[in-house]
Write a structure and sequence with these properties.
By secondary structure, the protein is mainly alpha-helical. It is built from 16 helices and no strands.
Length: about 425
């Protein structure tokens, strides 16, 4: 074990596990020869974010720094594994275990490492597609990277928690954040709950034995799901237009007179329209989901309830709902999480508008669309990263708590 601490692979060679020893030695030599200097440069860039304006590119240095951290973690993990493996081998040798011959060692290594060889590429891909952007965004939140501090002309500096403090103390940021966050919560709860309620209500009605032409009705109710969502949203955007939209021109004005409802220019009506659109888009999937669950409930339960004199509401409350929630709770939780970050409806309908006085977000902007505007419209990258972190924490905490409490993850006998 001490030999492996001094240099990776020496302990394996001493224990006569030559294949492992050679692999570890090659990895450490490659690290020392090719990666050590790059990692040192990356850590310097991560610490300083550059020292010469116009020459050092702070964001590029931040990228190299994040890659250096990932490299250190990977190499460190392999180094620790090398030490632990050498110790385990030494313990086995003391107990009388004899090292395998080369061919046996190769076969054993292949059999043992096959799952790791198959999942390795996926792990590497996840590292650079998920972990790297996540670390980069988190670190970006602690800088002053914005339109006025953009490399290479200017350097980006570390500012600590100043961005988080500004979000809750500077009036324009505070007012906008509270408004957008509260609307995001309302949007998530109301829109998702409404689409779940509509889907469940229609599924229960269609599942009633007295209903005829069930296949036709189910086909019609699932049709909105077959149309691409962005097409539906753009059509509704035109229909809700204040001036030439069909809803105002053909329904509201002929029936009630006046100039119609300001669907796109008033925040309240714009939010109402967006909730209705999301309900239309979301209920077909839930209707199909609930329909399958309802058909799996044994009719014996309802017959026993009829014998006991249960009402329709009691059968729904004590038989239908528990079974539906038991089977679909994880998917329903995902619906809430998805709508919390539902960018498409907000942006395609009216791009988060209408404008709101003394705020840098629109009346229907949720957190994710606000982050988009901060990133691409005003180039306030650091504040966008702060809000992204807050969104990630909220969704992670909510999902973790709900999944822990969901009965779908407990024993089926508890239902």
């Amino acid at each position: 074990m001490m030999l492996s601490v001094v240099f990776a692979g020496l302990g394996q060679l001493y224990n006569r596990s030559y294949l492992k020893g050679i692999i570890f030695i090659v990895i450490e030599v490659a690290f020392l020869v090719t990666l050590l200097e790059s990692i040192n440069f990356g850590l310097w860039g991560l610490r300083t974010l550059g020292t010469i304006p116009g020459t050092d590119h702070s964001i590029r240095l931040l990228v190299f720094g994040v890659l250096s951290l990932i490299g250190i973690v990977l190499i460190g993990s392999l180094y620790v594994f090398n030490v632990i493996d050498a110790k385990k081998q030494a313990t086995k040798i003391k107990e009388g275990w004899k090292p395998r011959k080369f061919k046996e060692a190769v076969k054993h290594f292949y059999d043992y490492a096959f799952p790791y060889l198959m999942t390795g590429p996926g792990l590497v891909l996840m590292t650079f597609v998920v972990i790297f952007p996540l670390l980069f965004s988190v670190l970006l939140a602690f800088t002053n990277y914005n339109l006025y501090n953009s490399p290479p002309r200017n350097l980006v500096d570390w500012v600590g928690f100043d961005n988080f403090t500004n979000l809750v103390t500077v009036p324009i940021w505070q007012d906008t954040f509270l408004s957008v966050f509260s609307w995001t919560v309302v949007w998530t709860v109301v829109a998702t709950t409404l689409q779940i309620a509509v889907g469940l209500f229609l599924a229960v009605i269609v599942n009633d034995p007295r209903i005829k032409f069930k296949k036709l009705i189910r086909t019609i109710l699932i049709l909105p799901w077959a149309v691409p969502a962005f097409v539906t949203i753009l059509i509704f955007s035109a229909m809700f237009n204040d001036h030439f939209g069909a809803i105002n021109r053909d329904i509201i004005i002929p029936l009630f007179g006046g100039d119609g409802i300001p669907w796109l220019s008033d925040p309240f009506y714009a939010r109402t329209a967006i909730i209705l659109i999301q309900t239309w888009l979301g209920f077909p999937f839930l209707f199909a989901l609930f329909t399958g669950v309802l058909q799996s409930i044994s009719s014996d339960w309802y017959e026993a309830a009829d014998v006991d004199g249960a009402t329709r509401f009691q059968k729904f409350r004590n038989i239908t709902m528990p079974h539906v929630l038991f089977a679909t709770a994880p998917l329903l939780i995902m619906q809430y999480a998805q709508n919390f970050n539902n960018f498409n409806v907000i942006y395609l309908f009216n791009e988060g508008g209408p404008p709101v006085r003394n705020q840098n977000a629109g009346g229907t902007d949720i957190l994710i669309s606000w982050v988009y505007k901060l990133t691409f419209d005003t180039n306030n990258y650091s504040m966008a990263a702060v809000i992204s972190i807050i969104m990630g924490v909220i969704i992670s905490a909510f999902a973790f708590y709900q999944f822990r409490k969901t009965r779908s993850f407990k024993e089926e006998g508890e239902i």
